[in-house]
Write a structure and sequence with these properties.
Blueprint (H helix, E strand, L loop, with lengths): L1 E9 L2 E2 L1 H13 L1 E7 L4 H9 L2 E7 L6 H14 L5 E4 L3 H14 L3 E9 L4 E6 L4 E6 L6 E5 L15 E4 L31 E5 L10 H9 L3 E4 L1 H5 L20 E5 L5 H4 L7 E6 L12 E4 L2 H15 L1
Parallel strand pairs: 1-3, 1-5, 3-4, 4-10, 5-9, 6-9, 11-12, 11-13, 13-14, 14-15
Antiparallel strand pairs: 1-2, 6-7, 7-8
Helix pairs in contact: 3-4, 5-8
Bound molecules: flavin-adenine dinucleotide.
Length: 315
């Protein structure tokens, strides 16, 4: 069965979510990608390597991509409809999914973590990831599905470059007059939080921004990335780009170390699928211990410096 995947290009590369979705779709059927952006050879090659056989490419220039992309996809799926159109959770992905939903008059199945085709069945997380529901799409194809980051692995199977068809941005009237005036590149030091093998995250239990260096030093010793809870982001200790959770990033490292984090469900939904979870918290009843593989009950200000010292002594 045919599946359409939405992809947006940034800095000459396809988005991580597009590669994850293309890989999954390739296991289920024949994948066509609707790719928005410059259309660099690298981005197209990445999509092919992950299983896309054909790509519809639209370059919106400086225009806000979603209005034209939604109109173009609506035209595309009007005839020979794929079973599903898959989106990641990026801003443009969600913008296009919403507009396409309005154009086609059918719902969007959101927060998907698994998917099967024929019939289309979508497993979604609800209530902050504490429950899962399975929804079967019974409306006319295609089903519109937004998938959570890292629900599927991106598999580079070395496929050939896909055949590419240029799609002109359709005239969408006044909604097509919105332009992107500025792009902000997220500041980043050290390994990429979403791709890191080790993540050390800190929460309010650190006591204040003056103690944040403990999280950074532990992460540096482990060559890991630094994460944070929303509580400390909201308090202004660290930038939003470090937030892990429902309204932040989803991470799936081999090792996740939670220091001074209570384990609110909105935080856990962004890290619960990590390989080994280690929690340090002075409250033995903290919910984070419910999902931790290794729990240390104690004061982060005593334990973390000792850990750093021990790691330094080993290197
Ligand atoms: C719609 C919505 C979306 C949200 N999205 C997110 C999100 O994406 N990510 C997120 O993280 N949160 C999110 N939240 C907030 C979430 O509900 C929690 O408020 C937040 O995660 C708590 O952060 P925390 O664990 O740092 O703080 P707290 O809950 O205050 O926990 C601090 C912990 O530190 C421990 N502690 C205190 N002192 C020490 C010490 N000296 N040594 C060891 N342990 C100590 C305490 O026992 C406690 O367990 C969201 C909330 C809402 C309503």
């Amino acid at each position: 069965m045919a599946i359409l995947v939405f992809s947006e290009e940034t800095d000459g590369h396809a988005s991580a979510s597009a590669l994850e979705l293309t890989s999954k779709a390739a296991q289920l059927g024949e994948v066509t990608v609707f790719h928005v952006g410059e259309g660099s050879a690298d981005a197209l090659a990445e999509l092919g390597a992950h299983g896309a056989t054909s790509v519809h490419h639209m370059d919106p220039g400086d225009g806000l991509p979603a209005p034209a992309a939604a109109a173009a996809i609506a035209d595309l799926v009007g005839g020979d409809a794929p079973a599903a159109v898959l989106f990641g959770m990026g801003n443009t992905d969600r913008d296009v999914a919403g507009r396409l939903s309005a154009r086609l008059g059918r719902p969007v199945l959101a927060a998907a973590v698994d998917l099967s085709i024929d019939p289309v069945r979508v497993t979604s997380e609800i209530l902050g990831g504490t429950q899962q529901i399975i929804t079967e799409a019974t409306a006319q194809a295609p089903a519109l599905v937004i998938v959570r980051p890292k629900a599927f692995a991106a598999n580079d199977t070395g496929g050939p470059a896909p055949s590419t068809t240029a799609v002109a941005a359709p005239d969408v009237g006044r909604s097509g007059s919105a332009v992107v005036v500025e792009r902000h590149v997220e500041e980043q030091e050290g390994p990429d939080l979403e791709a890191a093998n080790v993540v050390v995250s800190g929460g309010r239990g650190l006591g204040g921004p003056d103690n944040w260096h403990l999280v950074e030093e532990l992460a540096a010793e482990l060559k890991g990335a630094v994460g944070a809870t929303r509580a400390v982001v909201d308090a202004g200790w660290v930038p939003y780009s470090l937030q892990v959770g429902q309204t932040g990033k989803t991470v799936k490292p081999t090792v996740y170390i939670a220091t001074g984090i209570s384990g609110a469900m909105q935080h856990m939904v962004g890290m619960k699928d990590s390989g080994t979870i280690i929690a340090i918290n002075k409250d033995a009843d903290a919910p984070i211990f419910g999902i931790a593989d290794l729990g240390v009950v104690g004061d982060v200000q005593q334990i973390v410096p000792k850990l750093i010292e021990a790691l330094k002594a080993r290197s």
